[in-house]
């Protein structure tokens, strides 16, 4: 038997970081949105007795260093499924280490796909719990849409959906490791990291005013954009090409623009490609889709 899924990338419409706690985890307040830049995941049963992962055309590891592989292992353990015989193939479209949650969405899709493949041994809630242990963004990628994420990234609450929007995404230049980006925030702000519990309260009560161009914010821009010249240049290009909002996603270096119409977004993607970026045209969308 064989099943496939579209695993969407995420962008952050708002992302603020508070100080680290004693275990080194930072509190965050983030508004996340899934977009139709997809990895395609295929799972299939076979006559072997283990998990085989392939990521054709990418340099990603295909063993338990891959989050999707770890998700499969965690699913089999939780479902007490022995000697499974599963092949997983990831057709990678989401750029890696970009702030777009590529690994998390692959892992979330694998959890949902395997549950469907094995006739639903686990509840939706159990799958979300397995996901959250593997990575903070995984439950969000599984459910998708627009959501508020708080705590240390572990508290998720849905928000009224953002109006459908055309999205252009650009990625170029050096990778940014998420851990290094947090270390840069600690160095720049030290104990002064702005805690914004009022934002969490405000967003959870009132939602996010998508039409107010002032609400969009990403604290990581202040440490990444000054040295990452490609990300900074693509953000400016998106703005000049007519984006209503242009900003960095997560810890970068991917940047995105929100556009009121598809044709302006398409023209922006053409310009981004001409200036050397890997650029993608997509739309706001829901979570992992099995087909
Ligand atoms: P983060 O969750 O840290 O914000 P990101 O969205 O910036 O991540 P990812 O594309 O998820 O970036 O990659 C982060 C790291 O995870 C990379 O170094 C990569 O080697 C590793 N990784 C493991 N499995 C995967 C996967 N299935 N897809 C992408 N990266 C993966």
Describe this structure in words.
This protein has 291 residues and is α+β, with helices and mostly antiparallel strands. Strands 1, 2, 3, 4, 5, 6, 8 and 12 form an eight-stranded mixed sheet that branches. It has a four-stranded antiparallel sheet with strand order 9-10-7-11, with helices on one face. The protein is built from nine helices and twelve strands. Helix 1 runs parallel beside helix 2, helix 1 crosses helix 3 and helix 2 packs antiparallel against helix 3. The model has no long low-confidence stretch (mean pLDDT 92). Strand 3, helix 1 and strand 4 form a beta-alpha-beta unit. Helix content is 33%, strand content 29%. The chain has two domains: 159 residues, Ribosomal Protein S5, domain 2 (2-Layer Sandwich); 106 residues, Alpha-Beta Plaits (2-Layer Sandwich), CATH 3.30.70.890. The protein is globular, with a radius of gyration of 19 Å. The longest helix has 16 residues. The site of adenosine-5'-triphosphate has 19 residues, from helix 1 and helix 2.
């Amino acid at each position: 038997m064989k099943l496939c899924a579209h695993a969407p990338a995420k962008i952050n419409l708002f992302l603020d970081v508070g100080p680290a706690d004693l275990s080194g985890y930072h509190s965050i307040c983030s508004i996340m949105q899934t977009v139709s830049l997809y990895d395609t995941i295929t799972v299939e049963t076979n006559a072997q007795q283990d998990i085989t992962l392939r990521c054709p055309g990418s340099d990603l590891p295909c063993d338990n260093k891959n989050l999707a592989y770890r998700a499969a292992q965690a699913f089999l353990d939780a479902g007490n499924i022995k000697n499974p015989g599963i092949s997983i193939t990831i057709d990678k479209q989401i750029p890696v280490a970009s702030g777009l949650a590529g690994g998390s969405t692959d892992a979330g899709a694998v959890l949902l796909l395997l549950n469907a493949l094995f006739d639903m041994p686990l509840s939706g809630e159990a799958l979300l719990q397995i996901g959250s242990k593997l990575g903070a963004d995984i439950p969000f990628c599984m459910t998708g849409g627009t959501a508020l994420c708080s705590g240390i990234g572990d508290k998720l609450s849905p928000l009224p959906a953002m109006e459908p929007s055309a999205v252009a995404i650009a990625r170029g230049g050096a990778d940014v490791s998420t851990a290094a980006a947090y270390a840069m925030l600690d160095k720049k702000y030290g104990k002064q990291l702005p805690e914004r519990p009022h934002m969490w309260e405000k967003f959870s009560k009132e939602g996010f005013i998508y039409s107010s161009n002032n609400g969009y914010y990403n604290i990581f821009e202040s440490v990444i954009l000054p040295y990452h010249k490609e990300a900074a240049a693509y953000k400016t290009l998106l703005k000049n090409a007519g984006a209503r909002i242009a900003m960095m996603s997560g810890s970068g270096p991917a940047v995105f623009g929100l556009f009121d119409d598809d044709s302006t977004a398409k023209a922006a993607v053409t310009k981004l490609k001409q200036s050397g970026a890997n650029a993608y045209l997509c739309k706001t969308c829901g979570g992992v889709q099995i087909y």
